[in-house]
C-alpha cells in the first residue's frame, strides 16, 4: 500500500470510530485554576475525585467508598506525580455515604468526607460553593463544566495533570428512554454530555459546575465514555440539602 493510501486509510479509521473510542474531548486545566479539586488516592494512585466544600469537608460519590475503602485525600494538586509544594494531603476522619444509596442504579450517589484536620486555604486550595435547595439547577442544553484525573479514552489512559471539559445538559426524558438508562434513571439524576465529550473512569466524585457553582456530582455513565446514547450521569446536589446540613453539623 502506498504512503498516500496509508494516510487516507488512517484518516478513515479515526473518522469512523464510534463515540467514546477517541479521547473524551477535554483539555488540560490551567494549573490550580480549580482549587477545590480533590484526588482520592489508594497507595499513591488516583482512584476517585471529590471537591472541597468547607475547611474540613469534601463531597464525592458514594460508590467510591464501598467496602470500607480508606483514601488519602490530596488537595492543591495539578500534576499527580510531581512534588508540588501547593499540595496538602489528609487522612479521612470519617466518611458518610447517603443512607439510601442504591448500588444497582446509582441513585442517591453522594458522600461526604470529613478530613483529619482543616485545610490551609491558599490560591490552590479553596472550597467550592454548591447548590442549595431552592437554587436554580441548569436547564436542558445549558453548558456545564466538569473536571478530573479520569481516563482520557476507553482504553484507560489516565492523565497525570487535571483535565476539564464542557458538556451540555440533556433532557431527562431522553436519558429515561429504554434505549438509554430506562427506569434506572431517577429524578435525583441529571445527564449531560456531547459527542465524544464526557467524564470517564476515575472522574467519579468530581463536581459538575453551572455558573461556578457545583450542581452535580459525577456518578456513572455508559460502558463507553463519550457515548451519545448513554451520556454521563450526575447526582443533583440540591436534592440533598437537609442531609448535607445534618451530616456536617452532627
From TrEMBL:
One of its GO terms (cellular component) is extracellular region. PROSITE patterns: TRYPSIN_DOM, TRYPSIN_HIS, TRYPSIN_SER. The keyword Aminoacyl-tRNA synthetase does not apply. SUPFAM superfamilies: Trypsin-like serine proteases. Residues 23-249 form the Peptidase S1 domain. It is an enzyme of class 3 (hydrolase). GO terms for biological process: proteolysis. It is found in: Secreted. GO terms for molecular function: serine-type endopeptidase activity. Residues 1-22 form the signal peptide. Its EC number is 3.4.21.46. InterPro entries: Peptidase_S1_PA, Peptidase_S1_PA_chymotrypsin, Peptidase_S1A, Trypsin_dom, TRYPSIN_HIS, TRYPSIN_SER. Keywords: Disulfide bond, Hydrolase, Protease, Secreted, Serine protease, Signal, Zymogen. It holds the Pfam family Trypsin. The keyword Coiled coil does not apply. This is Complement factor D. It comes from Ictalurus punctatus (Channel catfish).
Amino acid at each position: 500500500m502506498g504512503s498516500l493510501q496509508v494516510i487516507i486509510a488512517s484518516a478513515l479509521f479515526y473518522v469512523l470510530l464510534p463515540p467514546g473510542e477517541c479521547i473524551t474531548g477535554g483539555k488540560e486545566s490551567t494549573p490550580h485554576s480549580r482549587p477545590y479539586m480533590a484526588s482520592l488516592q489508594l497507595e499513591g494512585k488516583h482512584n476517585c475525585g471529590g471537591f472541597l466544600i468547607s475547611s474540613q469537608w469534601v463531597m464525592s460519590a458514594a460508590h467510591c467508598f464501598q467496602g470500607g475503602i480508606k483514601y488519602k485525600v490530596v488537595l492543591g494538586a495539578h500534576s499527580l506525580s510531581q512534588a508540588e509544594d501547593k499540595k496538602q494531603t489528609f487522612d479521612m476522619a470519617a466518611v458518610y455515604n447517603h443512607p439510601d444509596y442504591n448500588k444497582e442504579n446509582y441513585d442517591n450517589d453522594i458522600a461526604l468526607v470529613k478530613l483529619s484536620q482543616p485545610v490551609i486555604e491558599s490560591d490552590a486550595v479553596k472550597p467550592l460553593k454548591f447548590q442549595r435547595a431552592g437554587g436554580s439547577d441548569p436547564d436542558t442544553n445549558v453548558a456545564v463544566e466538569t473536571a478530573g484525573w479520569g481516563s482520557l479514552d476507553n482504553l484507560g489512559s489516565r492523565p497525570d495533570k487535571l483535565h476539564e471539559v464542557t458538556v451540555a445538559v440533556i433532557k431527562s426524558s431522553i436519558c429515561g428512554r429504554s434505549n438509554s438508562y430506562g427506569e434506572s434513571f431517577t429524578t435525583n439524576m441529571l445527564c449531560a454530555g456531547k459527542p465524544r465529550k464526557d467524564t470517564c473512569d476515575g472522574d467519579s466524585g468530581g463536581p459538575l459546575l453551572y455558573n461556578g457553582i457545583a450542581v452535580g456530582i459525577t456518578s456513572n455513565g455508559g460502558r463507553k465514555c463519550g457515548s451519545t446514547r448513554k451520556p454521563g450521569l450526575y447526582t443533583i446536589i440540591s436534592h440533598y440539602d437537609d442531609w448535607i446540613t445534618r451530616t456536617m453539623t452532627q
